[in-house]
């Protein structure tokens, strides 16, 4: 069995950087035309937090089923949750970065923006951070605990698992 690696943190940072860049470009394009800044709806951070709660709920449910049934869990459910957790990390980073880019463009103005303008941007950034954190936790909950994988996976930090150590001692 192949060991499943965590999502590369550089991919999450790249998604956040792309989100920031898009947010900045959108705001600069709007301001160059004399339009008001784009203010994301308050439903965006609320939706990001709701998705975070759903991911955590499914992750905790999966972990409890693994502990209760000693590993007898539908692997397709675990893989789907893993895919959703990885997608949540990327989407949370991109949308949080977008909100951060929108807010970042307001810092260079000579007249400060009203709270009704910058607060939804900061909330979108915070919602993205919450989604990334929840998705990382859900991804961690999808991992097979040591000793339940049949000895084919490595232990923590790439160390050999118990079955691998026993096979080494027999040589």
Automatic annotation (TrEMBL):
The chain crosses the membrane at residues 7-30, 42-60, 81-106, 118-138. Keywords: Membrane, Transmembrane, Transmembrane helix. This is DUF3180 family protein. Residues 146-171 are annotated as: Disordered.
């Amino acid at each position: 069995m192949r060991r499943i690696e965590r999502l590369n943190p550089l991919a999450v940072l790249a998604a956040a950087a792309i989100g920031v860049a898009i947010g900045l470009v959108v705001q600069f394009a709007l301001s160059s035309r004399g339009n008001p800044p784009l203010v994301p709806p308050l439903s965006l951070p609320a939706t990001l937090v709701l998705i975070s709660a759903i991911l955590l709920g499914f992750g905790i449910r999966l972990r409890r089923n693994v502990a209760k049934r000693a590993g007898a869990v539908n692997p397709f459910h675990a893989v789907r949750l893993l895919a959703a957790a990885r997608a949540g990390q990327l989407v949370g980073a991109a949308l949080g970065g977008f909100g951060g880019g929108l807010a970042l463009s307001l810092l260079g103005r000579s007249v400060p923006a009203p709270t009704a303008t910058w607060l939804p941007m900061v909330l979108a950034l915070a919602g993205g951070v919450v989604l990334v954190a929840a998705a990382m936790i859900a991804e961690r909950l999808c991992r097979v605990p040591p000793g339940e994988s049949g000895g084919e996976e490595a232990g923590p930090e790439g160390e050999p698992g118990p079955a691998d150590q026993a096979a080494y001692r027999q040589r």
